[in-house]
Amino acid sequence: SHETLCELVDQTLFRFADARRVREAMDRASRAPGRKGLPSLEEALAVWTPGPKPGSPAEMRLVRHLRRLGFPPPERQWKVRDAADRFVAKIDLAWPRWMVGLEYDGEAFHGPRRWSSDDERQDRLASLGWQMGRVTKYDLEPGSTMVETWLASRVPRGVAVPVARRAGGTG
C-alpha cells in the first residue's frame, strides 16, 4: 500500500540516506522503461524536501497527516531564539508566521522522565508568544481529530506560505 511505502521511505531516509540522493537515483531509473512505481515513490518523498532532517520518522508521518488535512507545509526543526538572539528551543514542526508549533512526543524520548523538562521548554516558548501543541501516535490514528481541531484554530488551511528555509531551519 502507499502508506507502507511512505513508512519504508521514512525509515530509510531517516537512518541511511537523504532525499536528494534518492531523487537522483529515481531520475536515472526513470529513463528506463517499466518504472510504474516511481510516481508513488515521488509522492512519498515529497514531504522530505526541502528542509532539514526530521527528528524522527514519526514526525514525517505527522507532516503527511497535516498535508492530507490541507495545512500549509511546516518548517521542520525550527530554531527559536529570544530577543537577544539566544537559542531557546528547536521545534519539530513550526509555522513561524503564526508562531505555532507542534512537537511529536514519541514514547522513547518523551516519557515520564522528560515531562518536567518538556513542560519547562514549552513554558519558555509560550513566554515568547509561541502556541505549542503536542502530538502522540494516538493522535494520528484513524478517527482522531485532535491535531486537526487544535491546528485549525491557529493556522489557516490552503494558504500558500513561502518556505523560510534557512541553514538548519533557523528562525
Please provide a written account of the structure.
There is one protein chain. With 171 residues, this protein is an alpha+beta fold. 39% of the residues lie in helices and 15% in strands. It has six helices and four strands, in the order ααααβββαβα. The chain has a four-stranded mixed β-sheet with strand order 1-2-3-4, with helices on both faces. Helix 5 links the parallel strand 3 and strand 4. Helix 1 packs across helix 3 and helix 1 (2-15) crosses helix 4 (57-68). The longest helix is centred in the N-terminal third of the chain and has 14 residues, at 2-15. The chain is globular. The chain starts with a helix and ends in a 19-residue tail after the last helix. The model is unreliable at 165-170 (pLDDT under 50).
Average pLDDT, to the nearest integer? Answer: 80
Structural class: alpha+beta
N to C succession of SSEs: HHHHEEEHEH
Widest beta sheet: strand line-up: 1-2-3-4
Question: Termini, distance in Å?
Answer: 36 Å
How much of the polypeptide forms β-strand, as a percent range?
15-25%
